[in-house]
Amino acid sequence: MNTRATFAVHEPATGALVDMAPNHTAQDATQAIERAHAAWPAWRSRTAGERAKLLRAWHDLILAHREPIAVIMSREAGKVMSESRGEVDYGAAFVEWFAEEARRTYGDVIPSPSPDRRLFALRQSVGVVAAITPWNFPLAMITRKVAPALAAGCPVIIKPATETPLTALYLERLAHEAGIPADVYQTLTTTANAELGAVFLSDARVRKVSFTGSTAVGKQLVAQSAQHLTKLSLELGGNAPILVFEDADIDAAVRGTVAAKFRHNGQTCVCVNRVYVHESVHEAFIDKFTAAVQQIRSGNPSDDTVQVGPLISERALHKVEGLVADAVAGGARIALGGVATGGQYYAPTVLVDVRSDMRIAKEEVFGPVAPIYAFRTEAEAIALANDTSYGLAAYLYSSNQARCWRVAEALEYGMVGINESLMATVVAPFGGIKESGIGREGSRYGMDAYLEMKYVCLGGLGWGD
Ligand code: SIN
Q: Is 452 a catalytic residue?
């Protein structure tokens, strides 16, 4: 009989109980590390082709269960159904991509400086990986870490967010059904997040921790990683600006800003946080943008016609309310919304006359509020955009190609969208600079985080005589 404690998972949309999830402890984490560490030699010894086949089978099962996974994700994360289905596709694509990349973990033959030696750079799996993943992408942030780790030959332990354990458990079941060994792929759902994080970083057998979440927690992990110099990949917070220049296609800029602001109700790290519009098109932009935001249908995410759902928690709701109240107290004006609408819902909101010294300009909003600022010159726009400790994603709209390149190069961000605001794809490197993180995920660079380079010097060849 399984006597493990459980915890309840509730719908952010209604508060209804979705299901119970196992509540793993620090002791369970240590046992999981033991199992993963013991499984490492056999897993890394399989050929890349064998690992690729298992990943491909997992990918196919994920897509075959697209609808039930999307329903669970939508219920536990409050993500609207169209975005939940999109996330299943997006997440599965990482598995497919890294199944292919598994066969391409090439090393190097280095031209030798002496005739009796040959020099090689080999790439080998890092070892046991702990993946700590967020609630806003309950599936894709798991596959973006786990697929390259498994492809590289690393066993993984996944600690999903407390809010969204059910999607993670579904994925685990499919991974095992696909043939990925149980000790190579383990999921620890829990409410004891800090305790499990501490176990991962205090156990020298965990060689790598990959984390997506807040900058504050990321900094704690960096401090804890000092004990064993555990390798870290960190995908942290953002404060994304969008710059709309006077030569931009304003309709395209409005569409792009709406898409990048209100994706998952403003709750992604790459959501637009600050909207800077040239003063000459400022009023026209506000009119069109406000009209577009007014059309957004908010409601229960299970309703297929709904475009934005609830916020993830009451705490998130209070944060959004606090940021808007602070801005309004400082002189900002609410052009649309600006109110909580019951439960964990907040109306899609447009704030104007916002200034850079307000809290909303400095903190990640993580909610459906678009603060609009005016600028006069290109140099001022760049300076305002870069005036943050974050550096994840930035966007700009202009029809002047020279300006597009100039500004993209001047923006201190890991990712820049030019006349495009939904740029994430499995084939491109995702990640930030400054306090937005360390490392890149996805793309051909995504395997690097799970591979060590080993230099091998083969001497005594005696061909120099
Ligand atoms: C994130 O917000 O952390 C991920 C967003 C994405 O992959 O598009």
A: no
